[in-house]
Amino acid sequence: MAYVFPPAPTPTVAVANSDDRLPVRRIFCVGRNYAAHAREMGKDPDREPPFFFTKPADAVVMDGETIAYPPETENFHYEAELIAVIGTAGKDIPEADALSHVWGYAVGNDLTRRDIQLAARDKGRPWDLGKGFDRSAVIGPVHPVSETGHPEEGSIRLTVNGEVKQDADLAELIWGVDEIVSILSHSIELRPGDLIMTGTPAGVGPLKPGDSCVVSIAGLGEITTTIGPRES
């Protein structure tokens, strides 16, 4: 058998304090998982079942990269997020066992074409083009659970050009990582290399060319993204 054209390379992310790379299989994202952010998006923060959307694996951007301002948007947003990385496959995972399937955690930035997302949302259409565009998932080095444990509280913060825009605590997550993993696994079999972006706090807002965006999470370090000129 021969491929009719070369297969795409496997997307990977860094592993903290190692030269190893972690292959990315899929990226799942949890929508409106902080009450204050749900309110700022005009939605009720009551503890309804979480909902999910996805980004393609090759949307991954490494820490320290410059990305072009994406096309077809005038409202390009940042979203600081804790990322859980699946290391052990499973389906119908009990909540009590869910954290044993997590290999590690990372700092992330769920870049969003907000105008496209909201236009789709208001028409009851999928969010794909607002969320799953090229280079829309900034993922920092993954820290193994064996070194960090499972973060349940601690600062999550985002700055733009040194000005604090998002400042919250992981304890404010509506749905914890154990609950998210369990719920998602009842719909889709999770596999090693699946990444879960767990939601963003209040304070989302726009980025423009020339901006430097830094996301930090207690115990996991920080990531920096520079916004370059608009993509032609």
Automatic annotation (TrEMBL):
The keyword Metal-binding applies. Gene3D superfamilies: Fumarylacetoacetase-like, C-terminal domain. Keywords: Hydrolase, Metal-binding. Residues 27-227 form the Fumarylacetoacetase-like C-terminal domain. It comes from Jiella avicenniae. InterPro entries: Fumarylacetoacetase-like_C, Fumarylacetoacetase_C_sf. SUPFAM superfamilies: FAH. This is Fumarylacetoacetate hydrolase family protein. Coiled coil: none annotated. GO terms for molecular function: acetylpyruvate hydrolase activity; metal ion binding. It holds the Pfam family FAA_hydrolase.
